[in-house]
Amino acid sequence: MSQFNTNRGWLCSAAALAFVAGFAASAQAGECPADMFKPNARQAVDFKPVGVTDTTLGAIDLGKEMAKIKGRELRFRKMVIQPGGIVPWHSHGERPAIIYITEGEIHEYASNCAVPIVHKAGDVVAETSQVSHWWKNTGNKTVVLLSADLIKDPNDHTM
Fold first, then answer.
1. pLDDT for res 81
2. Closest Cα partner for 89 from 58, 59, 127, 126?
């Protein structure tokens, strides 16, 4: 085997290892560290929304669809959180959601985690019935996230 092929094989192996290591590290990003996951780790706080724009981009009445989930709407929103902005305390007990952070970095203060959870652009967050939380943009750049949730009341403006 030539020196070129040996070096190329080593470089390909190194690149593959770096990719896998990077993927494993990113899979852990935006999660509560295992030793900090605790029920009732954080109590509700009474913050009002600050520096948040919440725009519904689309919604589907699921009672009118094949799923026939009467009284539920699938909603898709864009939220823009300015530096220092706060998304106030809210529960996902009856409103599961999936969040995708498209820009910036934001801290989540979850009821089941003793430390703030940092979410960065590219992170996806599943918000299930086990979590209540609030979010704060502690940085100096705007945060943009996309949210899909199932709501009961289309007039519910809970963030």
1. 98
2. 127
